[in-house]
Specification:
alpha/beta; four-stranded antiparallel β-sheet; five-stranded parallel β-sheet; 647 residues; 59% helix; elongated
């Protein structure tokens, strides 16, 4: 079926396709800039998936028809590489450079790993296995988080042409080919339904290639139905279908565009079959956009400003998210409108430069177009790029340690490092909390505190309150394991019987809650009862152990338009939460260990402690700051164990 001699060619240019791409990329960019403006803007990526499946299948079947049964796999892959890799390499190099100076110290290794995963087009699976929740609140999100969709498409580009060649070898009629593709798409959509649990973090189904393939396959199936060649559907029927698609394209486009607003609220419905319906509507628009007969939608999508945006949509998508991450509101504490204007302007400029001087020349003339006067140098640069990026990713964390990565206040917290005096007997301590106490446990040095035995009843990313968080007009998703973790407090502590149980007040407790379909606002009586009940539950779970509470510190992290992170950054919200906890502690004779007073003197966020970075990512202790904090915390745990006041 393959022919190395076959020549790869492109499909005829359809300006309306670029117009549809423009709608998709604009929605994604607005969602990432200001999610409250367009809460369903993430659906633009779904539009890209359907377009890709449709166009790639049309391209391959066109070649199959033109060469009388041959598809040049290597030619196809080379064309994809010329189209995608040059611009991506430039962005990855820029990310490595910016991360060296602008990424907080504890995240440089993560960014380096993300660069390598993006190079290998497996970023989506890295995020599935990691903590990069797309719809969650991440203290320092990856500047390459958007590369998950590139990975899904590239995996499709590698596997799908081979699958199509195999199917064409045994299936002659296009109707049957489309039916097989639809069956595979249905299996993918069903897997998404099975793996998705409403109300819980959807990262697995959102990032997964297996659960996303149905959108690519819907586009592929429709392309198979309308493409010409051996076994094609009768042209008269195709013309009828084309006519109806042109008639239905305008309402279909309106539904798709409206989804950029309502998809956020209907997220569960989309992950449980609704995305298939919208994918079919996208194909209706695609058929009308590529029809030889004009229509209202084709003319709208061919509008010159939209067409031009669509032409550079790949560059816009590549550049916008790193720019948003690196030029966040902590790096540029400008008015929102000014910062967004700069981010948009830089994205547009770099995208145009990429298209004008890299993407278009390489796509037209190959890698020699990079330096046309010295084609051998162009080839050398091309072949050296991947090794250089790999070496750069490996070296970047070490390079970042030599420069300042803390662009917030440089003021320091001074903690006296008095010699630690071990107690006369071992004291066992269990921490209840999220990833913050987990970072302290990781950085505990038993040699420095030989009388303390520290254990964790922690769960990364989980909130201690039973009621779901509500922010930005929607319920924030949570992993199923979080509910299991909260239920495990009592049986786990009953089995361990520690001397001390320390409850960490979580930063997420500043968020509103949804109880019985009603929003419980922060600071209200109902919210106070939720906090009190949770503390009652934790104290009861501690049983005969000494129970204490560590209050919440202040933080300063990029918000990316998140209401929850804005509240975490707001010292007034933090102080109100700490006051609520202190009032409960006073009524229940529970000691409070006051880290807020230590780390936030004068209610100001500090970036260093005894001269070293305080946080790895604006919220978690580092390998250097953790032992310093332990020098302050350990004596207070000793006093709690003996019933003394820890202050």
């Amino acid at each position: 079926m393959t022919s190395p001699a076959a020549t790869h060619t492109s499909l005829p240019y359809r300006p309306a396709i670029d117009g549809l791409r423009a709608f998709a990329v604009i929605s994604v960019i607005i969602y990432h800039l200001m999610p409250r403006w367009l809460p369903g803007g993430w659906f633009g990526v779904d539009v890209f998936f359907v377009i890709s499946g449709f166009l790639i299948t049309s391209l391959l079947l066109s070649e199959y028809r033109r060469t009388r049964g041959h598809i040049d796999l290597l030619g196809f892959w080379r064309a994809r590489a010329r189209r995608l890799l040059p611009a991506l390499f430039i962005v990855l190099a820029a990310v490595l450079l910016c991360a060296t100076f602008l990424t907080v110290s504890g995240r440089t290794r993560n960014v380096a790993g993300d660069v390598l995963a993006t190079l290998a087009y497996v970023a989506n699976w890295r995020f599935v296995l990691g903590d990069e929740a797309y719809f969650g609140q991440v203290a320092a999100p990856s500047p390459l988080r958007h590369a998950w969709s590139l990975a899904v498409e590239e995996q499709f580009y590698i596997v799908y042409p081979m699958l199509l060649i195999g199917l064409l070898a045994v299936i002659r009629r296009r109707v049957n080919l489309a039916a097989v593709l639809m069956a595979l798409g249905a299996a993918s959509a069903l897997l998404m339904v099975v793996l998705h649990t409403p109300g819980l973090d959807p990262s697995r189904v959102y990032y997964g290639t297996d659960t996303r393939a149905h959108q690519l396959l819907v586009g592929a199936a429709v392309a198979a139905l309308i493409s010409g060649g051996p076994g094609a559907v009768d042209r008269a029927r195709v013309r009828v279908a084309d006519l109806w698609c042109r008639r239905l394209a305008l309402p279909a486009l309106l539904v798709i565009v409206s989804a950029f607003w309502w998809a956020g609220r209907a997220q569960s419905a989309l992950f449980e079959g609704g995305a298939v319906v919208l994918s079919v509507l996208i194909t209706v628009v695609l058929v009308a956009a590529t029809s030889p007969a004009t229509s209202v939608v084709q003319r709208v999508l061919s509008w010159e400003p939209l067409r031009r945006i669509g032409m550079v949509s790949y560059g816009l998508y590549l550049w916008h998210w790193p720019i948003i991450v690196f030029l966040n509101d902590q790096v540029l504490p400008w008015p929102t409108a000014a910062r967004v204007a700069l981010q948009v302007a830089l994205t547009a400029l770099l995208s145009w430069l990429s298209y004008r001087f890299i993407e278009r020349p390489v796509r037209r003339d190959g890698i020699r177009a990079l330096i046309p006067r010295v084609p051998r140098v162009s080839a050398a640069v091309c072949w050296a790029t991947v090794p250089l990026l790999v070496v750069g990713a490996i070296a970047m964390p070490a390079a970042a340690r030599t420069v300042s990565t803390q662009l917030t206040s440089s003021s320091d917290v001074a903690v006296p490092q008095v010699p630690y005096r071990p107690g006369g007997q071992m004291t066992s301590v269990t921490f209840i909390g999220n990833s913050v106490p987990e970072s302290l446990i990781t950085n505990f040095r038993s040699a420095n505190h030989p009388d303390l035995e520290i254990d964790g009843l922690t769960n990364v990313g989980c909130d201690p309150l039973d009621a779901p968080r509500y922010a930005d007009g929607a319920v924030l998703p949570e992993q199923q394991r979080c509910a299991d973790w909260r239920r495990s407090w009592a049986p786990t502590l009953a089995e361990r019987k520690p001397d001390v149980v320390l409850y960490f007040v979580a930063q997420t407790m500043v968020t509103d809650r949804l109880v019985d379909g009603r929003v419980v606002t922060f600071g209200s009586d109902a919210w106070t009862r939720l906090v009190d009940d949770n503390l009652d539950k934790a104290k009861a779970a501690a049983g005969d152990s000494h129970f204490a509470v560590l209050n919440l510190s202040c933080h300063s992290m990029p918000t990316f338009g998140s209401e929850e992170i804005e509240r975490v950054n707001d010292t007034q919200h933090v102080r109100d939460l700490n006051t609520t906890v202190a009032d409960w502690a006073a009524r229940n004779d529970v000691p409070v260990i006051d880290q807020y007073s230590l780390l936030c003197p004068d209610d100001r966020v500090r970036s260093t402690i005894n001269g070293v970075p305080l946080y790895a990512d604006a919220i978690h202790f580092t390998a250097d700051s953790g032992p310093i904090f332990w020098k302050w915390l350990a004596p207070r745990l000793q006093r709690v164990a003996t019933g003394e006041d820890p202050s």
